[in-house]
Amino acid sequence: MWIWEAATMLPSQALLPAVVFALTALQALASDTFTAAVYEHAVILPDLTNEPVSPSEALALMNKNMDVLEGAIKEAAQQGAHIIVTPEDGIYGWRFTRESIYPYLEDIPDPAVNWIPCTDPSRFGPAPVQERLSCLARNNSIYVVANIGDKKPCDSRDPNCPGDGRYQYNTDVVFDTQGKLVARYHKYNLFRGETQFNYPKEAEAVTFETPFGKFGIFTCFDILFYEPAVVLVDKMQVDTVLFPTAWMNVLPFLTAIEFHSAWAMGIRVNLLSANTHNTSKAMTGSGLFTPEGPATYHYDSATEEGRLLLAELSAHPRLSPTYPPAINWSLYATSIRKFPGESNTFSGAVRRDIFTFSELRHKDGNYTVCQGDLCCHLVYQMSNKSEDEVYVLGAFDGLHGSVIKYHWQICSLLKCPSTDLSTCGQPVETAQTRFEMFSLSGTFGTSYVFPEVLYSGVQLAPGEFKVLRDGRLKSMNGTSKPLITATLFGRLYEKDQPHPPRISL
């Protein structure tokens, strides 16, 4: 029905999107803020098969998901949102081989072609998904961000052309309030299970201008790497990053809300994070994150329901009077003598990474733990230490990962699952111990450090901690809830191993 309605729009109705867009643009220009939305979507998945379905079956599944997204887009627009981000894999899911995903792919052109699929749907061949997304943006006068699959033919003249004669890319698209395609991004850092897609030949730094700031975009696993994530912020100077993701939560440091909020604070930019929702895959956690902390967020591991989030954000956060200063992450830690504690260290695994830990044996104290070039310093005081709970200070300085290896430096105050020290580093979601204060710092060899504080029940702690200019992560007035972890997560991008082969044959 949506196609028929667009095709039979009366002349007066056709002018409506342009009028609304003009009014929206004037409102945005008159303000230093804008309203952003993200939608955490419980994706309707295809049946598991190695054989391709027909194009009509593929489109039927994608329309089921877009029916849900349409409701979220309309609601966001009605609440005044200027832009909405939907998740990675949000239109067709993730149960695919290279062959079985092919019916779900469309040819997505370079935005330089100046194309509005809603009004010219067949210009580049069949594109029903792009057409519908374009119409949703146009008819609701809102920027729409979605994740779909791109296909590009190739032949023997290209020595890297895959054997099936095409490249397949995990792709983000952005349509403006007129329905025009204004951005296309091919995911550069594929997660280990994404064998259905190819690596693009080069990392893409995709940006676009709006009446409410400069935007960049990348996808999920990309956030952990220099290209394109840091390039967009440091070199392209974007105000806001759009972030479709299908993020599987990994405690203690890499739950979605925990790391994405910390990344926005550490790199000092807005991040609009839309996650898929699937509890069997530990996928949940979306939010609107700012340099000052989360504006709003959602984490739900108990139900299978989607969630729409909206918040008013600064359009140009670098110009905001509350914009946080640059941090010298090693200044304090390199200026003091080591605290005691190194003689009582032990090794423990956080997944495959071997940390150096020291148990916090007393209700208060000062500790230092070192590994490699990193020394972590902690000053703390517990308010109600539970006898059956153990906390440790941990340090890690080394390469992480299997297919892609990248360098972490981590200082962490974290709770162990039990009093058995061999369990330290394993996931834990609940705690009973509160802290009167803590101050965590480290001798980091990087300026890219992301501050995390996670409370019992996998909840953030907005407004309850601060980062001083000398690199100390400090609680402000104690912890209002029991603490799971306080962590400084550093990335030494220059020590990463080379990007894997860019072409998956």
Automatic annotation (TrEMBL):
GO biological process, one term: pantothenate metabolic process
Domain of life: Eukaryota
Gene3D superfamilies named among the record's database cross-references: Carbon-nitrogen hydrolase (3.60.110.10)
InterPro entries from the UniProt entry: Biotinidase-like_euk, Biotinidase/VNN, C-N_Hydrolase, C-N_Hydrolase_sf, Vanin_C
Signal peptide range in chain numbering: 1-30
Keywords assigned: Glycoprotein, Hydrolase, Signal
Active site (record annotation): 88 (proton acceptor), 187 (proton donor), 220 (nucleophile)
Pfam families per UniProt: CN_hydrolase, Vanin_C
GO MF annotations in UniProt: pantetheine hydrolase activity
Domain (CN hydrolase) ranges: 44-315
Similarity remark: Belongs to the carbon-nitrogen hydrolase superfamily. BTD/VNN family.
Name of the featured protein: CN hydrolase domain-containing protein
Annotated organism of origin: Cyanoderma ruficeps (rufous-capped babbler)
